[in-house]
Design brief:
By secondary structure, the chain is an alpha+beta fold. It is about 20% helix and about 35% strand. The protein has helices spanning about 1-25, 30-35, 55-65, 130-135, 190-200, 310-320; strands spanning about 40, 45, 70-75, 80-85, 95-100, 105-110, 120, 150-155, 165-170, 180-185, 215-220, 230-240, 240-250, 265-270, 275-285, 290, 305-310, 335-345, 350-360, 365-375, 390-395, 400-410.
C-alpha cells in the first residue's frame, strides 16, 4: 500500500506540472518540444521504449534546407539519434549541427553560427556530452564516439536542381586506361583495382573515406593532342539521379600544344548516395558562346541577368526583348541554353555592357560581364541607351554566377 501511495502521489505531481505548463502557455510549441525530449539513454518521452527514427522524415527535412549547398550530412547513431550536419554560402547561419531523437521535431541539441557568433545549446542536458564529442569530430567516420556506439551515414540526394559539393582527388593528363570510361567507385577494393589499372606503378592510391563518400571517375581515352581542357565541372541532383557533367574544350587558340598524345582523367569525391549516376559530356570550342541577334534594340529597360533552359521561357523573354517584329531564334534546349544580360539605362552612347567570357569555375558556370564607360576625353552621343547581350551556350545544370568588371574607353 505504501508503494501504491507513492505512485499515486508521483502521478498527481506530474499532472500538476502539466497544468502549470498549460497555465503558462505551455500548450503550444513548448509542450511539443518537451514531449519529444529524451530522458536518460535517449528514449523519447511519450514514445515507445527503443523507438527507431524514421529515416525518410529526416531526409525530407535535409532536402528542404535553404543553406546546405556545401555540406548536407545525416547520421543515424545507435538507432536512437540522428545528427544533421550542414553548411552553405549564407551570410548568416551558414553552418549548423542538430541532434534529434525519434522525430525531426525532437530536437535535443543545436549548434551553429549567427550574427552574434557561434551558439550551442541543449534542451536535454543528458545529451550534451555526446553532442560535444560529435561537434569536435565531424571529420571522423565514427564522429569520435568510438566502438561503444554505432554510427551509420544516411546517403540521400538533395532536391532536384541542387548542386552537390565535390572535391577533385586526381587530375592527370596521362593514364594507362586508353579507352573512354566512366566509373563509380564505392569501396576501397574497387578503388585499389582501378588505381592499379590507371597508374601501373607502386604509388599508393589517394586515401578516401568510403564510409561517407564515393568517387566518380572520367577517363577521356587516348588520342588527344594535348592542347585541350578536360575537367569535371558540375555535380548535382537531377530528377532522382546524381548528374556529373564534364567539359572537353579546345584551347588551341590560346595554348601551346604538347608534342604528345594524352589520356586525360579526373576523379572527384562526392557524398555517398545509392541513386543512379548520369554522366553528361559538354564539348566546347575555345569561343564557347554565340551571340543572338546583336542588332536588335531591346525593350527591356531595367537591369537584369537571365538564364533560360526551356522553350516557353525563351519565347516569353524574346517577345519582351525584341517584340513581334523579329522571329524567335532557334535554340535546341536539349543541348543548349541562353544566358542574357540587360544593363539598364545608360546616359550616352559611350556606355556599353555585354558578356565577355563564359567558363566553369568551382562547380559554377561563371559569366564575365563587361561594362564600358567613356574616358575623360572621349566624345559621346548624348542619348539614353540600354545595352543588352544574349548568348547561346552549351547546356549545363550548374548554377550560373555573373561577375561584372568595368573598363574605360580611351
Amino acid at each position: 500500500m505504501r508503494e501504491l501511495g507513492r505512485t499515486l502521489i508521483n502521478a498527481a505531481a506530474m499532472v500538476g506540472v502539466g497544468m502549470a505548463l498549460a497555465a503558462c502557455g505551455g500548450g503550444g510549441e513548448s509542450t511539443a518540444v518537451m514531449k519529444n525530449q529524451t530522458a536518460g539513454q535517449g528514449i523519447a518521452v511519450g514514445e515507445p521504449n527503443g523507438g527507431v527514427p524514421v529515416v525518410s522524415e529526416y531526409i525530407k527535412m535535409a532536402q528542404q534546407a535553404s543553406c546546405a549547398s556545401t555540406r548536407n550530412n545525416l547520421y543515424l547513431i545507435d538507432s536512437k539519434y540522428v545528427l544533421w550536419d550542414r553548411a552553405g554560402n549564407c551570410a548568416d547561419n551558414s553552418t549548423g549541427q542538430t541532434l534529434m531523437g525519434a522525430t525531426p521535431e525532437a530536437v535535443l541539441c543545436t549548434s551553429g553560427d549567427s550574427i552574434a557568433g557561434p551558439r550551442t545549446s541543449c534542451l536535454d542536458a543528458s545529451a550534451r556530452a555526446l553532442f560535444d564529442t560529435m561537434l569536435k569530430n565531424l571529420d571522423k567516420a565514427d564522429l569520435g564516439l568510438g566502438a561503444g556506439h554505432k554510427v551509420e551515414p544516411i546517403g540521400f540526394l538533395p532536391k532536384s536542381g541542387t548542386p552537390v559539393a565535390f572535391k577533385t582527388i586526381v587530375s592527370e593528363s596521362f593514364s594507362n586506361i586508353e579507352t573512354p570510361r566512366k566509373v563509380v567507385i564505392k569501396d576501397a577494393a574497387a578503388w585499389s583495382a582501378l588505381w592499379s589499372e590507371h597508374s601501373k606503378t607502386r604509388i599508393a592510391a589517394p586515401e578516401v573515406d568510403f564510409s561517407r563518400n564515393m568517387l566518380v571517375a572520367v577517363f577521356q581515352g587516348s588520342g588527344n593532342p594535348g592542347c585541350g581542357s578536360f575537367d569535371v565541372v558540375h555535380v548535382g541532383a537531377k530528377d532522382g539521379k546524381l548528374l556529373v557533367e564534364y567539359e572537353i574544350r579546345d584551347m588551341s587558340p590560346v595554348m601551346i600544344c604538347l608534342a604528345a598524345v594524352t589520356q586525360p582523367m579526373r576523379v572527384v569525391s562526392v557524398p555517398k548516395v545509392d541513386a543512379p549516376v548520369e554522366f553528361r559530356k559538354i564539348v566546347n570550342d575555345y569561343a564557347n558562346f554565340t551571340t543572338v541577334e546583336p542588332h536588335v534594340r531591346t525593350a527591356i529597360h531595367e537591369q537584369r541577368n537571365v538564364v533560360v533552359r526551356d522553350e516557353a521561357a525563351w519565347a516569353a523573354l524574346w517577345a519582351e526583348h525584341a517584340g513581334s517584329g523579329h522571329a524567335l531564334p532557334k535554340v535546341d534546349f536539349r543541348e543548349q541554353m541562353v544566358i542574357g544580360v540587360f544593363r539598364g539605362p545608360k546616359p550616352n552612347t559611350c556606355h556599353g555592357g555585354g558578356i565577355g567570357n563564359v567558363s566553369f569555375q568551382n562547380g559554377k558556370l561563371q559569366v564575365g560581364v563587361v561594362d564600358t564607360v567613356p574616358g575623360p576625353d572621349v566624345f559621346c552621343g548624348m542619348m539614353i541607351v540600354h545595352p543588352a547581350h544574349l548568348v547561346i551556350v552549351k547546356r549545363s545544370e550548374a548554377p550560373v554566377e555573373f561577375v561584372t568588371e568595368t573598363r574605360t574607353n580611351r
